[in-house]
Structure formats: C-alpha cells, structure tokens
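Notes from hallway chat w/ T.B., transcribed later so I don't forget. T.B. wanted the structure written out for a chain they're using in a teaching module, and asked if we could keep both sequence and structure tokens in one place. Agreed to drop them here.
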Amino acid sequence: MNRLIQAFILALTVLGLSDAARAEDAPAAPAAPSVAPVIEPQAMDALRRMGAYLRTLKAFSVTSETLTDEVLLSGQKVQVAGTSTIIARRPDRLYATVKKDETDLDREYFYDGKTFTIYGKNVKYYASRPAPGTLREVVEALADKGISIPLADLFSWGSNEDTTKVITSAVYIGPATIRGVATHHYAFRQPDVDWQIWIEKGKSPLPRKLVVTTTDEEGQPQYMALLNWNESPKISDKTFTFVPPKGSHKIVFADLPTSSSK
C-alpha cells in the first residue's frame, strides 16, 4: 500500500498537480522593479493651465461631495461622507461650509475683507479675528495656525506663485468622464502625499474630481471630492458677513499649534 501511495504522489508531482510540490519547487517571485519618478511635461502644463484659468475667475461658487477615510484605533478604515461649499469673490471675500455625516461637524466660515469668523452650527459657538489681506493670504495664515478651509487647494492653484516645486512625480493617466463632463485624469506625487485630479477638457479647465492619499499616516487614508462649479454666481455682500444667530456664544479664537512647533 505504501508503494501505491508513493507512486500516486510521484505522478501528481510529475503532472504538476501537487500544490505542495509546486510551492517547494516554484521560483521566488521577482521583486518589484524600482521605478524612477517621472515628471511628464504634459501633466505639469495641465496643472499650470488650470491654475491660470482659476485666476481669471473673479467670482465663483463650488460645491463638493466628499468621502473621507477615518482610521479607527483598531487600524480599520471607515468612510465618512460629507459636503462642502465655497462662495468666493476676489480679492477678499469668502463664505464656506463643511459638514460630515456621522459626526457633529457642521461649520460655516466667513471672511468679509476685514474679519474672519468660524461658526459651529451644532454647538452654537463662534470665534472671530482680524484678517486683512487677500483670500490666498487668509487661507495661508489660517493653515499656519492649524485651521483648514474646505477646498483650500483651489486658492493655491489659483495663486500667482509657483506651487509645483514640491511635486516629485506627474503622469497623465487618460481620459475620463466625471458626471457627464469630459476630463483628463492626472496623478501626482509629493512628499507624504499622493494625489489625483480630473481636469475638465476644453476652454474651462476646472478641477472636477480630487483624490488625496496621505502616505505618511497609518492606513494611508484618502480624501475624495467631486466638484460642481458655477462660474457666474449671483452674490450679495451679506453672504460674507457673519451675524451672530440668536442663542449663539462668542469664544476666544485661540492660536493653534502647528505641527512644526510640537
């Protein structure tokens, strides 16, 4: 009987049907090749063209549907949906909102050219501080204090300064349609962040979709936004002026520590 078993196993091995034999005899999988970063001029030109177009918009509104990865203490990632809105008028007017499902985050941001205010609609607290300057300067000043404006990248791309120096890889992926809008899909890399952008084809190279992957955090969480634009909105000055709602409370606008100061 032992000889029959040995002969059966030998036959399986010869025919390539023995998983154990294949696992032992198969050569090790080759290591993934190291690919040098590529910066395609086509991708960089598309980014600069988009930024130049954004600078031509004297007023605009953009709404977004967002999906944000949150990493639990267990390491598992969960997606949290949300919405955000920006209404802007250059050089110094801004109104923005941000809301996330399954959380109590529901905020409004006001900038009237002189004062910046954050209002938490659920908690009914607000804080204000002087903020003269331009939209870009306000966004940068708040970022230095650890306060982020929704879709703040719109103001970096739309500035006159070269914001492409930190990019280490830029490639064109291909054509894509985002909610009926024809776009070109690009992928970029910079320290600690991978990001993708879908830019509308034609005379209005607006960003229509954005995906950001934070590569230096556990689980590499992603943020995704689908953007809907209005390039000629009807805007009242009252849009940018904060009037404290009844029952709201003013608190101190504390300077938050930045990561570099920790």
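Follow-up for T.B.: Residues 41-56 form the longest helix (16 residues). Might be a good example for the class.
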